[in-house]
Design a protein that fits this description.
The chain is an alpha+beta fold. It has helices spanning 2-30, 42-64, 72-107, 120-167, 183-186, 190-210, 213-248, 253-283, 290-317, 331-337, 339-361, 365-399, 409-431, 434-468, 474-483, 487-515, 522-532, 535-540, 545-576, 581-606, 615-627, 630-645, 685-690, 718-731, 767-785; strands at 653-656, 659-666, 670-674, 680-684, 694-695, 704-712, 742-749, 752-761. It folds into four domains: 2-167, Methane Monooxygenase Hydroxylase, Chain G, domain 1 (Up-down Bundle); 190-468, no CATH class; 611-700, SH3 type barrels (Roll); 704-785, Alpha-Beta Plaits (2-Layer Sandwich), CATH 3.30.70.100. β7 and β8 (752-761) form a beta hairpin. Residues 126-163 form a coiled coil. It is found in: Cell membrane.
């Protein structure tokens, strides 16, 4: 009877459970609530979760790689929409999960072992409900985690927005003369105080751990050791480097450059070791948080940068040993500038520390601008004071009649540029553009570091190769014997390697300047300024400010570098290669033309020009070449042929179409020929290829010929005239003794005898003037000897009276 009761109850529950899903599914269709979200199937819920996760990953990637082109407003709207979609999904899944739980509550727990088992339909129904419940729980868990991630992304986005506002170079605040600007220093806001207190909560435990009684002695010992290495260790290491340079390096300019490099490196190396010991002292028993760890690593790099500034100042000024100084600075000027590198290093350390603290603590915009304004002000005053003091000392030397250092054009341009940057930064501070002033001062410091490092390494590279390949030193002699080369080849190799090293260092320095040192890059500066002026509209026309800046800078640096290498080739390398002037001029011109083409291609590439988009330009040019540009292209190709085949070269004496002179320059389109009267004839290159050209000096002959033909009466003694002409030629200073001048009997005619006298001169260009001098002397001696020249015979017909035309006819 009990079994029948349990069986009847099971059948009733099974029927109810089978009807319940249909009733629950039909109920919303008959009477849906106004705010009840539509039910989702498992496939629809999983598809929506996947879409939300993909969108969240996209926003997270955009936030992690934010740059000047990222629109934070769009990211904010996308996050809000994503949060709304997540809430809708949770609202749709939560009722379904409650319904499943209600169904499971009706079914109750499964029967205990040993009792009457439930039917297969009930067990299957419970398993399906549990599986759906697990799926809904997983979906709700993913939605909850997605909501938490969205909240974290919202916080990160807020931090990015504050950082973007702080780094906005066009952002204007109060002037440094306004007391409101300094208010955050005396009355910080509650948020800034809370953030700094939270940062202090991370720092204080580290300090307390380091000064615990069981760790205090080791911490103090490490700090004392770091101080000793930074002071005494630096001096001892520098003295050891000086001893090595004086005793192991040759006595030439390599000692000076090596000593300067040793001074800078010892300062950086000892500072790095001291910083490492301090880091170990405070973190050996404490694991810093991620933000504090990042702050410590950034501060270590900043300390090394400051040490490099101080080391470069000591190395280049070299006030203790003026004879070791690399740059041509007067001693009073070097002494006047001595304290400023250290002061600049200390101020830069302070500036960077404030920047890092503001970044880690995420202080407010006014407090951040206050720190940047203070840093920019002290840096501007330091560099400005150094410039004023140096100028005052130079003026004093000039007034006293003493000679100051020689100033090159490039040095003057750098001095003027630094002065202008200081003035611009000071005006920006007074106008309230603190972030812009900070950019200018930081870039100015970075420019000084790169420039001084480039100068030091360039001098060291040149001196190293000159000493290594010098025949006067052991290394040069070993290389000479090993490879069997002469001294001229060693000099050529030295010049070539030093030039290549200088070029590589210059390119690296240019890249370092373009990538930016401490602050914003020039491209980001222009981007910030154009953002205020409507940069988004420019981007809508595919005009990218950063591309324009990079292209302009690359074009300027490329042209400057090309001209520098061209001067180096023309003045140093090619003359040592023992090449003739014409070949040197051709190689330099060819190098310049190829270099300009490469620079233009690089500039177009940086502008984002794609070569497949230039097809229409090539088509248009082909049409233009076929009509109007035909002659230009022909002359251009002819110029390339002249530079490669070299039928004529610079310095040759040529004659073409009645024009005779020296080739002074072969351009891309035409060739300049200088005549004897110093005038210049411009001949298209195509004429030098297509016409007959007489090249007097093509055979590399250094001799010219002075030949004269004279006609004498038949009764003249030819031997006497021959001796007289030979004496005149031999007495002339420009006529060479070898080959010996000669006289040839050229012609015997009824009107006289013709003698040809020939002599050689050292240069074809003086043959004309030599002929003139010889003719003067010949006429003088012929008159003295009473030897006449033959007069040309002419037939003169006069009108005689009484004679007719018939009378003039011959008789039959």
């Amino acid at each position: 009877m009990r079994r029948l009761s349990w069986l009847a109850l099971s059948l009733v529950l099974t029927a109810l459970f089978n009807l319940m899903p249909a009733a629950m599914a039909a109920e919303p269709a008959s009477a849906p609530e106004a705010d009840q979200p539509p039910a989702l199937t498992h496939a629809e819920a999983m598809a929506e979760l996947k879409r939300l996760q993909t969108e969240q990953d996209r926003i997270k990637q955009s936030a992690s790689s934010v740059n000047g082109n990222t629109r934070l407003g769009d990211m904010d709207e996308a996050l809000h929409q994503l949060a709304t979609d997540v809430n809708k999904l949770k609202s749709a899944l939560t009722p379904q999960r409650a319904q499943l739980q209600a169904q499971l509550d009706v079914l109750g727990p499964p029967p205990a072992p040993g009792t009457t088992p439930e039917t297969a339909a009930v067990a299957r129904q419970r398993a399906e409900l549990n599986a759906r419940k697990v799926q809904l729980d997983n979906a709700l868990k993913q939605a909850t985690e997605g909501k938490e991630n969205i909240e974290n992304l919202n916080a990160q986005l807020g931090k990015l927005q504050r950082g973007r506002m702080k780094d906005q170079l066009a952002l204007r605040s109060e002037s440094i003369l306004n007391p409101q600007f300094w208010a955050p220093l005396f009355k910080p806001s509650e948020d800034d105080s809370a953030r700094m207190a939270a940062f202090a909560d991370d720092v204080v435990p580290m300090l307390q751990t380091a000064w615990e009684p069981e760790h205090r002695a080791a911490t103090a010992l490490l700090l004392v050791l770091a101080l000793a290495i930074w002071t005494l260790g630096r001096r001892l290491t520098e003295r050891a480097a000086v001893w090595f340079c004086l005793n192991c390096l040759p006595e030439n300019r390599l000692r000076r450059s090596a000593l300067a490099l040793a001074t800078a490196l010892t300062t950086v190396a000892t500072t790095a070791l001291a910083v490492q010991l301090v880091y170990i002292a405070f973190t050996r028993n404490f694991e810093p948080p991620a933000d504090l760890q990042d702050l410590l690593s950034q501060m270590a790099r900043l300390m090394l940068t400051s040490a490099l500034i101080a080391g470069l100042g000591r190395a280049l000024l070299c006030t203790r040993h003026p004879s070791w100084r690399l740059p041509a600075l007067a001693d009073p000027v070097a002494l006047a500038l001595k304290p400023f590198p250290r002061a600049l290093a200390g101020l830069l350390l302070l500036a960077g520390t404030l920047e890092l603290l503001n970044h880690v603590a995420d202080t407010s915009v006014p407090f951040t601008l206050l720190g940047r304004g203070l840093v920019s002000l002290v840096v501007v005053f330091t560099i400005g004071a150094a410039l004023l003091r140096a100028n005052r000392v130079r003026s004093g030397l000039a007034a006293a009649g003493e000679r100051a250092e020689a100033r090159a054009t490039l040095a003057g341009m750098i001095h003027a540029g630094v002065t202008l940057a200081v003035i611009i930064a000071l005006v920006a501070l007074l106008a309230g553009y603190v972030s812009f002033a900070r950019f200018v001062t930081y870039e100015l410091v970075w420019f000084d570091i790169v420039l001084c490092t480039l100068y030091l390494l360039t001098q060291l590279t040149r001196d190293t190769f000159e000493s290594l390949l010098s025949p006067q030193h052991a290394s040069g002699r070993v290389i000479r014997q090993l490879f069997g080369v002469d001294e001229s080849r060693l000099e050529q190799a030295s010049t070539l390697l030093s030039g290549l090293g200088t070029s590589v260092l210059t390119i690296i320095a240019a890249i370092a300047l373009l990538t930016g040192g401490f602050g914003t890059t020039p491209a980001e500066l222009l981007d910030s300024l154009l953002t205020v002026l409507g940069g988004d509209k420019l981007r809508s026309y595919n005009i990218m400010p950063e591309r324009i800046v990079n292209a302009v800078v690359a074009l300027s640096v490329g042209i400057w570098l090309l001209r520098s290498v061209r001067r180096w080739l023309d003045a140093e390398l090619l003359p040592r290669m023992c090449m003739e002037p014409g070949l040197r001029a051709s190689l330099v011109t060819l190098f310049s033309n190829v270099g300009y083409v490469l620079i233009v291609l690089l500039t177009l590439s940086l502008l984002g020009v794609k070569w497949e988009n230039l097809a229409w330009i090539v088509s248009a040019l082909s049409v233009g070449i076929g009509f109007g540009l035909q002659e230009i292209v022909k002359n251009f190709v002819s110029g390339l042929i002249l530079l490669t085949e070299r039928p004529v070269k610079v310095g040759d004496m040529v004659s073409i179409a009645g024009v005779e002179g020296d080739i002074r320059r072969i351009n891309v389109r035409a060739t300049e020929i200088q005549l004897g009267d110093r005038s210049t004839v411009i001949v298209p290159n195509s004429q030098l290829i297509s016409q007959n050209v007489r090249n007097v000096t093509m055979s590399n002959s250094t001799q010219g010929v002075a030949t004269l033909q004279l006609t004498f009466p038949l009764n003249t003694d030819p031997e006497q005239v021959r001796d007289l002409l030979l004496d005149i030629y031999l007495d002339n200073e420009t006529i060479l003794d070898h080959p010996v001048p000669s006289v040839t009997f050229s012609q015997l005619a009824p009107n006289g005898i013709t003698l040809s006298v020939t002599g050689y001169v050292s240069n074809p260009r003086i043959a004309g003037s030599t002929k003139s001098d010889l003719l003067f002397e010949i006429l003088k001696r012929l008159r003295a000897a009473g030897i006449p020249l033959t007069m040309p015979q002419t037939l003169r017909v006069e009108n005689l009276p009484g004679m007719t035309a018939e009378a003039l006819l011959p008789a039959p």
